[in-house]
Backbone:
């Protein structure tokens, strides 16, 4: 961002000119959850700009926890844990605590990878990456309130069992939920791509970063699924 007074080239996220101290843009102090999510949907670069400028990254921990619960739902499905738990309540209880821990770990891991990839952009700190990742994952985080309860309402514990599997019990419902789940995953990754594009200004670079983060997440989740299968 070019200073209007002295012409010094500042970064996109500076609020004051580094050379003469002139005002460049308003500092953001707090993030309003619904306002920020609205911005991410209708004007993603403005949304991510506010997230990075904000002093306090409100709700990013909460979004990371919810994202983790959505991921652990998938892991429990892939690991076919249904037979291992006495009832659905006990399974959900374990899924929630496991997911909450996992969410913080996953977002921390992806943010650390991004912080290293974005080493050139010194004004983008780790907490900015953390907030960017957790806010990008909001479509998956919101699935905890709508999609996952709908799946549980239709299939109950049989969503997590192998024989009969949910795809045999009610194929139509299963594939509709499956499709919606994938749309939410793609939307989350697309948002992360747009966030990185806002920071780097390069679509290709952002695509490579999102690809690398997705691959590391995919490998990690597969390892976790295998680990859970052997542990239970
Ligand atoms: Zn200046």
Residues:
């Amino acid at each position: 961002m070019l200073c209007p007074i002295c012409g010094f080239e500042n970064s996109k996220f500076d609020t004051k000119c580094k050379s003469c101290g002139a005002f460049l843009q308003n500092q953001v102090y707090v993030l309003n959850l619904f306002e920020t999510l609205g911005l991410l949907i209708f004007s993603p670069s403005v949304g991510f700009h506010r997230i990075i400028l904000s002093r306090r990254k409100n709700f990013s921990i909460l979004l990371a926890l919810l994202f983790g619960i959505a991921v652990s739902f998938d892991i429990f499905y892939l690991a076919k844990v249904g037979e291992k738990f006495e009832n659905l309540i006990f399974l959900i209880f374990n899924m929630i605590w496991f997911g909450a821990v996992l969410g913080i770990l996953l977002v921390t891991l992806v943010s650390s990878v991004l912080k290293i990839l974005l080493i050139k952009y010194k004004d983008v700190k780790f907490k900015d990456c953390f907030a960017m990742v957790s806010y990008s994952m909001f479509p998956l985080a919101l699935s905890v309130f709508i999609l996952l309860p709908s799946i549980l309402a239709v299939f109950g514990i049989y969503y997590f069992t192998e024989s009969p599997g949910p795809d045999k019990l009610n194929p139509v419902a299963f594939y509709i939920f499956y499709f919606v789940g994938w749309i939410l995953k793609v939307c989350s990754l697309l948002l992360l791509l747009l966030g990185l594009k806002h920071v780097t200004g390069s679509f290709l670079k952002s695509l490579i970063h999102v690809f690398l983060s997705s691959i590391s997440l995919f490998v990690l989740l597969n390892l976790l699924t295998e680990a859970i299968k052997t542990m239970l």
User: Anything to note?
Assistant: Residues 33-231 form one domain. The chain has two domains: 1-27, 33-231. The longest helix spans residues 88-117.
